[in-house]
Amino acid sequence: MKVEEKYMARSLELAASGSGQVAPNPMVGSVIVCHEKIIGEGYHRKYGGPHAEVNAIKAVQVPEMLKESTLYVTLEPCAHHGQTPPCSDLIIEKKIPRVVIGTSDPFSEVAGKGIEKLQKAGVEVETDVLQRECRELNKRFFTFHEKKRPFVILKWAQTLDGFIDIPRDPEAFGQPTWITGDLALELVHKIRAGEGAILVGTRTAQKDNPSLTVRRWTGDNPLRAVIDRNLRLPPNLNLLDNSTPTLVFNAKKNSFSNNTAFVKIDFNRNILPQILTELYRKNILSVIVEGGFHLLESFFSAGLWDEAHVFIGDRFFFNGQKAPALRGKLTASQTLGSDRLKIFRNDA
C-alpha cells in the first residue's frame, strides 16, 4: 500500500465513526502527518459541529509542526460559510503546505472550489486517493447531490420458497407475518437508525400495522412515510400515533397536525418522483422502502433504486404473496442465525 493510501485508509476509518450522527452532511475523516508520524486525527462528529479538518488540527499538540505536515482528508475541504467557517481557510491560515484528498465534493457550494482555493494559496494538493472507497462511504451523500434524490434501499423479508406473506383476509390484518428471527429483526432496527426515512404503501400499513421506529437498537427514528391516496387508513394505526414525524402522501390535502404532515401529490402522474422530490426538499439523504410487493415493484420498474436488502428466513409458506424477483448485482451476504441477508446493487 502506498503511503498516501495508508493514511487515507486511516482517515476513512475515522470518518465511519460519524455514521448516524452527521446527516445530511457527509461522514469525513482526517489525519495530519509530519515526518511519517500521525500528529493529529479528527472526524466530523455531529451535524452542525466542527468538521474533520478542524478536529484534526485541534488535536495537534505542537501547532508549529503544521507548517511541515500533510493533511489527509476523505472529502474536499469546504470553501463556503455554512454552519461552520470554511476548512480551506483554516488550512491556509495554519500554513499546512500539502493536502491529500480522497474525492471532490459534489455539493454545489464546494464542488472544486475548496481545491481551487488551496492551490491559489500555494498549497500542494493531491486528489482522488482511494476515491472509490471514499465515494462508497458517502454513497447516500453523493446520490443526493448528483441525482437530486435520496439513496433508495428496497427492503423485504421472504421465505425459502419465495413468499413475503401468507394469504390473508381483512380479519387477519393488524399484525405482521414474521418470516425471520430476532437477529434479523435487530439488524433491521439498526439499519433504520442509520437511514433518513422509511416508506410503506397503504396495504402494508393496513395489513401489518407497523410502527416503523427504532426499538431494538440505539438511534433516532427515521422519518416515517406512508402512501394513502384517499386517506382511508384508520387513525388508530401505529403510523398515525404522532409519536414521531410522519408524512402521509395523498390526493386530497396539504395539512399538518402534531407530528403528522399530509402531503398532496398528483396520482395521475408517476408518484415516485414526487415522493422522492419531497424527501429531497426535506434534506433526507436516504429512504428505506419496506413494501409491499406492488410498491417495491414500482421502484424496480422505474429504476429508482440503489440497493435491495433481502432477508431470507428459514421458513416455507407454500402459498401467498410472491416476493419481488431479485435484480442487480449481489454485493454482500450475511448469516443471521438461521436467516440470511443478501444485498443487491443496482448496476444499471
Descriptors for this entry?
elongated, 348 residues, 5-stranded mixed beta sheet
Task: Describe what this molecule looks like in 3D.
With 348 residues, the protein is of the alpha/beta class. 27% of the residues lie in helices and 25% in strands. Strand 1 (29-34) and strand 2 (37-43) form a beta hairpin. The chain starts with a helix and ends with a strand. The mean pLDDT is 93.
SSE topology:
Blueprint: H1 3-16, E1 29-34, E2 37-43, H2 52-58, E3 70-75, H3 87-93, E4 98-103, H4 113-120, E5 124-126, H5 131-137, H6 139-147, E6 151-158, E7 163-165, H7 182-194, E8 197-200, H8 202-208, E9 223-227, E10 246-250, E11 255-257, E12 260-264, H9 271-281, E13 286-289, H10 293-302, E14 307-312, E15 321-322, E16 329-336, E17 339-345
Parallel strand pairs: 3-4, 4-5, 6-13, 6-14, 8-9, 8-13, 9-10, 10-12
Antiparallel strand pairs: 1-2, 1-3, 7-15, 11-12, 14-17, 16-17
Helix pairs in contact: 3-4
Summarize the structure.
It is built from ten helices and 17 strands. It has helices spanning 3-16, 52-58, 87-93, 113-120, 131-137, 139-147, 182-194, 202-208, 271-281, 293-302, and strands at residues 29-34, 37-43, 70-75, 98-103, 124-126, 151-158, 163-165, 197-200, 223-227, 246-250, 255-257, 260-264, 286-289, 307-312, 321-322, 329-336, 339-345.
What is the percentage of strand-forming residues? 25-35%
Number of helices: 10
The largest sheet, given as strand count, sense and whether it forms a barrel, is:
10 strands, mixed
Strand order of the largest sheet: 11-12-10-9-8-13-6-14-17-16
